[in-house]
Amino acid sequence: MSEHKNNSNQDSVISVRAMDIITSILFLVLGVVVMVGSLKLGASWGSDGPEAGYFPFYISLIFMLSSTVTLYQAAIVDKNQKPVSFVDKESFKQVMAVLLPAIVFVLGVQFIGIYVSSVLYIAIFMVWLGKYPIWKAIVVSLGVSVALYLMFEFWFQVPLPHGSWFNPLEFVGVN
Questions:
Q1: Which residues on neighbouring strands pair with residue 15, listed in sequence order?
Q2: What is the mean pLDDT of residues 2-11?
């Protein structure tokens, strides 16, 4: 990300105050989920010591207390302060240029397997963001996937996901 201090909101995607509010609400929800799960496990002190949910209960309580303080500060105390940009449009575009293909890669692993998804992911990133020639991207991405296959499937004998919908590797004899 850039290190320039641009506090104007003309090219801001979201403010620091809004991100504080969103993050504290998400952590409050997480704290409630963990607390409910801890109560189901037992969050008290039993005859032989703490029950399974004892420590997660109190950790979630700390989460919720600190999130409540952050929410109060962002929503009430900082309400009249000048908005400060959390991220500008250009930085947001750079983050999305990496995040969205990563999400597609993870979905691809589920549907077409890790090896084919890795070839596509590495090759596309090398050509698109790295500006490498296509032939280099193909060689490197195939090399990485073959190395992964040999390492995990052949040597360690740990199968990695081959894809639930379609396994293109079946055509070359990989089940």
A1: 85
A2: 55
Measured in whole angstroms, the distance separating CA 32 from the mean position of its chain's CA atoms is 21
pLDDT digits (tens, 9 = 90+) for 47-65: 889 999 999 999 999 999 9
Strand 49-50 to 85-88 pairing: unpaired
pLDDT of residue 9: 52
Q: Of 90, 72, 95, 96, which Cα lies nearest the Cα of 17?
A: 72
Calculate the alpha carbon distances from 130 to 101, 105, 127 in Å. 14, 18, 6
∠ Cα 148 141 108 (to 5°) = 75
32 Cβ neighbours under 8 A, 6+ residues apart: 60, 64
The residues near 103 (Cβ < 8 Å, ≥ 6 apart) are none
Residues with Cβ within 8 Å of 1's Cβ and at least 6 positions away in sequence, in order, are: 87, 91, 94
Q: Helix (H, G, I), strand (E, B), or coil: what is residue 118? A: helix
Instruction: Map tokens 């090399």 to a residue.
Output: 143
In the predicted model, is pLDDT for residue 6 greater than 80? no
Find, among 93, 91, 117, the residue nearest to 103 by Cα: 117
Q: Identify whether the C-beta of residue 16 lies closer than 8 Å to the C-beta of residue 88.
A: no
Which region holds residue 87: left if phi is over 0, alpha if psi is between -120 and 50, else beta? beta
